[in-house]
Design brief:
The chain is an all-alpha fold. It has 16 helices and no strands. It folds into three domains: 2-94, no CATH class; 99-119 and 148-226, no CATH class; 235-302, no CATH class. It has helices spanning 2-17, 22-37, 47-62, 64-82, 88-95, 102-106, 112-117, 125-145, 152-175, 180-190, 202-213, 217-222, 235-262, 270-279, 285-302, 313-323.
Length: 324
């Protein structure tokens, strides 16, 4: 009996490993039941109920129409009652396109011939002209400026992030091979030393971010030729003004933090601390004005729309009632 159970477990592991279809599971399960019933230790009267149960389960699981009627549809109805109703935005996003060949890839058994049958993409005349002219001109401009060592954090971040994404894409393809053996063989060729590309470190990200969010020669080169509005009525103009105001306010804020740390200022929030520092003549009126201007621009930049707490609740409840 123990050998029969061990054999059944090993057979189930093999079938799971090779991702066998339903009929293969049914055949193995039938063989196990026949072997079980042929043993002398099997209780009398067990054969008919066991064979009947096997026929019912195997039939329902291996015939799609029966499986949908007795298993899939009831389970789907339960999940529909549990899951929240899909919003209009989510529905529009789903209806906006198709899964293309990615659906085949994530099925676990992709049809590679279908991928090969897709026509080879080609560049239009305008796209080829863009590569031959604008891109060449851009590369020439970058080369004429010289290889600036200050820009290296941006280059390193972009390369590390791109290599990590390429590695993840390869791993996704290999992990979805229908056979683990077929997926392992190319993995040994593509990743002979393992996957050693990692996402950019936080330290590198901070260095790259500082080049972009603080006035610098690198930032000036990257924005050269770009339209930067001077009016604070435009969003980009407000962002640019807030950046310069933040830089100007850094030294003043450092004075206030030092005074608060020493106990000279007792105010709790930043606005009250600035007013108290002005009264105590720790900062000048001009420095206080700098802080006030930065606070106004800061609030304007991060301002978002405000919605009531029950926004959309009635619409969602109506959709759930309609789905039920």
């Amino acid at each position: 009996m123990s050998w029969l159970i061990l054999g059944a477990v090993l057979a189930a592991l093999v079938l799971a490993y090779i991702r066998a279809a339903g009929p293969a599971w049914a055949i193995v399960a039938g063989a196990f039941i026949i072997a079980l019933l042929s043993m002398q230790t099997t209780p009398e009267g067990l054969a008919a109920p066991l064979l009947g149960l096997y026929v019912i389960v195997a039939g329902v699981l291996n015939f799609p129409a029966l499986r949908r009627k007795f298993i899939s549809d009831p389970l789907l109805a339960v999940y529909r009652r549990i899951l929240p109703a899909m919003s209009q935005t989510e529905q529009e996003a789903i209806d906006a396109g198709t899964v293309w060949w990615d659906g085949e890839l994530f099925s676990g058994r992709p049809d590679w011939n279908q991928l090969l049958e897709f026509p080879k993409p080609s560049l239009s005349v305008e796209e080829q002209a863009f590569l031959d002219n604008e891109c060449e001109e851009l590369c020439s401009m970058v080369e004429d400026e010289g290889r600036k060592s200050d820009d290296l954090p941006l280059l390193h971040w972009a390369m590390e992030d791109t290599l990590m994404r390429i590695q993840a894409a390869f791993e996704g393809v290999l992990a979805n091979y229908p056979s683990r053996l077929l997926g392992t063989s190319p993995r040994l060729v593509i990743f002979p030393l393992g996957q050693w590309f990692a996402a950019p470190s936080d330290e590198l990200g901070h260095r790259a971010a500082r080049l972009l969010i603080a006035p610098s020669a690198t930032r000036d080169r990257l924005t050269a030729g770009m339209h930067l509005p001077q009016s604070e009525a435009e969003v980009v103009g407000t962002l640019e003004a807030a950046l310069h105001a933040a830089v100007e306010a850094e030294a003043v804020e450092a004075k206030i933090r030092a005074a608060a740390k020493s106990g000279a200022l007792k105010a709790a929030n930043a606005e009250d601390q600035a007013d108290a520092a002005l009264v105590a003549q720790l900062i000048s009126a001009a420095e206080h004005a700098q802080l006030a201007r930065f606070a106004v621009l800061h609030d304007k930049v991060i301002a978002v729309d405000h919605f009531p707490q029950d926004f959309g609740r009635e619409e969602g409840a109506a959709r759930q009632r309609a789905a039920a």
